[in-house]
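Researcher: Last one for today. Full complex below.
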Amino acid sequence: MESVLTAVLTLGALAFAAGLLLSVAAKVFYVPVDPRVGQIGDLLPGANCGGCGFAGCLDLAGAIVSGQTPPNACRCASEEANRRIAALIGAVLKEREREVACIFCKGDAAHARLRFRYLGIADCRAAELVAGGDKACAYGCLGLGTCVNACIFGALRMGEDGLPVVNPDRCTACGACVRICPRRIPRLVPVSQKAIAFCSSHDPGKVVKEVCTVGCIACGLCKKVCPENAIEIVSLLAVVDPAKCTGCGKCFEKCPTGIIRPASGEAPARRQAAA
Amino acid sequence: MQDYLLLIIAAMFVNNIVLILFLGNCPLVGVTSSMESAFGMGAAVVFVTTLAGTACWIVQRFALEPLALEYLQTLVFILIIASLVQFVEIVLQKVAPPLYRTLGIFLPLITTNCMVFGAAILSIKRDYTFLQTLVFCLAAAVGFALVLVFMAGLRERMEVSGRIPAALQGVPITMITAGMMGLSFAGLLGMAH
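Model: Here's the assembly. Have a good evening.
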């Protein structure tokens, strides 16, 4: 009984001494922290997704207060939150358009050829290591859902065709899917972009045609037909400039593989009728 | 004097705390991706280990042993190390903000580092005097920091060499490197105790 008492008393005394030391130290060595850091931290989503490039939401709050980053550096915060953050530090908010993730590949099982059957770990990063993935196309989506698992906002799901589908209402453009994809197939596009070339392949047209029926063959027809000069062929891949595109839809009609589509990703009516 | 020299050599190289005693292996992989963070972690560990080892020695000799409470050693040492790390963090934030920023996340990480705890336990187990404990903890921690810096240097070079096969990049090649470093340190085994 006595030994138990000694043990409890000793431990208690040591813990008390340690606690005292810490609380005295916290008082003596108190460092005033800007209260706005905490206030901004409360306004931020608190998801700690790291999309801003800082270690977490509080880290970003500190950077905003010290002026290292603009007050709307958080990609996930709502416009209302961004306005309130800007008001807190007395800055004028520069409007920045919301972005959403977009899957730059339409090569599902029906359209893209496979080179072999992949039966390994169900993770695109693992599949990519096995002789460069099972898709015949070296740029196509491997469809194992690594980006879906990486999305902490539940904005991605696997579609019936085996390609990820973005829910634009939930997407916060944190960029987690962009970073984790071994092939960089999800990319961020402005939410208002009207035409998108849904392909990532930089292969020449002949190679693309061999491996996939819905790939960009870099024929340049879209570039010629576009009245706004909004389309460029960059390294054998059509790229739409969202700032110039008006969404007239001429390229949808002209694209021989039907890979330039409205941002919804649905093939235009003409194609569906043909199929 | 010679005894202390031998103690230092033994703790730093012959019985290196990471590569021979296998304590504190997580930072060896975790923080050695860049020289800067390896150096920060190393410096923080040297600081805390020396402080915690000696503090634990004092508590052991003047509180636990007279009261026959040696069985509380683990609990008490963890308490001491954790509060000491907190204390150091608070003081550094006020006194030396640049150092605090350099050490950054590594200070709280040390709270749960088995290397700090191991050094404290070992000096009790080996019946060291206070001065021996001080020297041993310092030397063991410097040995730890040295291995971290070696590792970071190797990893930085491998990063830019571009000659690591894709399947081995990152953690796998780090494990292989750690194993080889362990083997080379094992060549010194038996030279001092």
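The domain at 35-88 of chain A is CATH 1.10.15.40 (3-methyladenine DNA Glycosylase II; Chain A, domain 3). Chain A has eleven helices and eight strands.
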